[in-house]
Every structure is written in C-alpha cells, then in structure tokens.
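Student: Send me a single protein entry containing the residue sequence and its fold in token form, directly below this note:

Tutor:
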Amino acid sequence: MLSKFKDYLLINGNSFNTAQNYVQRIEKLLREISIDNLSEDTINNYLRILQQKVSPSTFNGYIFAFKAFLIFLKKDIILPKVSRPIQTLPESFDEKYFEEEIIPTLEQITKTDFLKFRAIFYFLFYSGIRIGEINKIKRDDFDLKLNRVKVLMPKTKRERIVFFTDKTNEHIKEYFDSEPEEINAFNITSNSIKQRMKEYKQYFPNINLHCHLFRHAFAMNLLKKGIDLFSVSQLLGHKDIKTTTRYLGLTVDNLQEIYNKKMNK
C-alpha cells in the first residue's frame, strides 16, 4: 500500500524527498489508526495530540501528507486547515528556522519548480539582495568560482558586488543546470516572486513571509555572527549607515549590546 502511495506521489510531480516524508508520516499514522478506521474523528484526535508535540510548520506537513493519502485512497474526509498564528509575527528568522522549517516546507508545496525557488530562497537569505535587483541579473553576472554576483541597484543605477555562501552556490548551480536562461538568471520577475510569496504565506504560520523579510533576516544574521554594523551596511548596499540602523530597528540598547560583544571580551 505505502509503496503504491509513494509511486502515486512521484507520478504526480512530488520530489523524491517529499514522497519519502509523506510516506514516513503516513506510516506513523497507520501505527495508531488502521486504514479501515480512518475517519474525520480519528484523524482529528490524532492531530490534536500531534499538535502539542511538533512545530506549526511540521504540523502543517502532516496535514499535507494526510490530504495526499486520502486523495490516493479516494476517501472524502475533511481535514483541518493549516495551523494559523495567534501572536504577532516576527519580522525576521534565523538560519535554523530557514534550514529546518522554510526549505522543507518549500519542498512540500512546490513541485516542478522546487530547484528554482530553493535557489532563489537561498540567494535572498544569504546575499541580502533587494528583490528588485533580481530582474536585471544575468547568469554571466555570476562568478561561481568566487561566490559573488554583480548587480545593478535600480534606484541609483550603480553596480555593486553581492556575495553568497558555498551552499547557495551549490543550489544555484543545480538550478542553472536544470533550465536554460531566458529572461534573466532565474527566469522570473520580482513581481512573480512576490506573488509566489503571497501564495506560500499560508504555509508559514510563524513568520510574516514576504520578499523583504529575507533581506532583514540576512542583516540580523550578520549581526548575530558578530559582523560589524559598518560592514553590514556595505553588504546591504546602503550609502549611509543611518539607513542601516533605521532599517534594522536598532535602538541604543541594541547598539550597546553589539559594542559589548566586541569590546568586553
């Protein structure tokens, strides 16, 4: 049964990893509830207990898996909607959340264009690039040996160099190998990326997902790693460091904390 379910997922455009994750989650479900006893009540009872043990995004992942399995079984059972936040959403996220929550969820909700959006998400988070700067980037602008790319700032019409990590490099290469360049390096406009972010937002209940959030998270990640404020300002492409402090929402206390980490060792 589960091997047929896995084949069904792969035939319908899911990635191998997504199919594996879904099968593993269904295995856990079937240890508690037999197929003959699957119903709205039994599944909801299972989900209520599960909700207390896992993060909201992981909980949503189980709902995705259950929905796919019920479609496979041709069972008409209504499942709860994905988990919604109650508290005010933070305007940032860290590397752990990015790697363990955002990317796995992205893999579950994308199909044929996962490689493209994984590369874009990594590029946004680890370069701090403005979303509008993506429009003009061509693959010839990338130096994949040195992990950097030349971008044109739309407002000032000045060029700047943006850096990215080794892992980002790997995902960019994998995407570039999968699809030839047409309109730009990622074959997508900034407006189309913004629209996708709106569509994906419902699957990330713990953050207020939007394009600029990645730039903010990039900046906060640099500060957490001990990179000085002036360097952060340069990496963001700000002409005035005052813009950086306003952009990050840094107060006197924040600045003193940064100072103390470096000066009071």
